[in-house]
Amino acid sequence: MKILPTLEGGLCIIPESEIDWDELQLICSDDDRPTYLAESLADLMDEDSEWGEYVVPDLEEGFRNQTQFVDAAIKRARQSNEPAIFIAPTKAELWYGAINQVRLSLQASYDVEELDEAGDLNDWEPELKSAYFRNRFYLLLQSMLLEFVMDRADG
Predict the structure, then answer these.
(1) Cβ distance 110 to 124 under 8 Å?
(2) What's the first-to-final CA gap in the chain, in angstroms?
(3) Among 37, 63, 94, 118, which is most exposed with the fewest C-beta within 10 angstroms?
């Protein structure tokens, strides 16, 4: 898979195999993630703050909108046999948010941030190895969004 900045200030993701398309669709594969993330943020708040009643529903909706947008963009490109997925600058925050959600979910499920010091990759279970590499890919994609798309919009 290739990820390139575009002249219009966005990103172009070029999947080169079915595995690349599958990897992209994993960004939106966890249906419970919006609820989990919103509730985990609620755990940080004071019980008297009414966070759960007023803020969590809006967060869940926002998280769900991000993942649904990205999922639809990936599916539309794949089903139409498009050679690439283009992320316009106006849609970068949706992509960034969805990718951030999946990274937080991977961290909660597999503690992927600690795996860099965990020893030889060959000794890991396949599921853990997959989570680690997906997290690294998503981190790279987020970094490219920040560097080539979102920082440009701010400056």
Answers:
(1) no
(2) 29
(3) 118
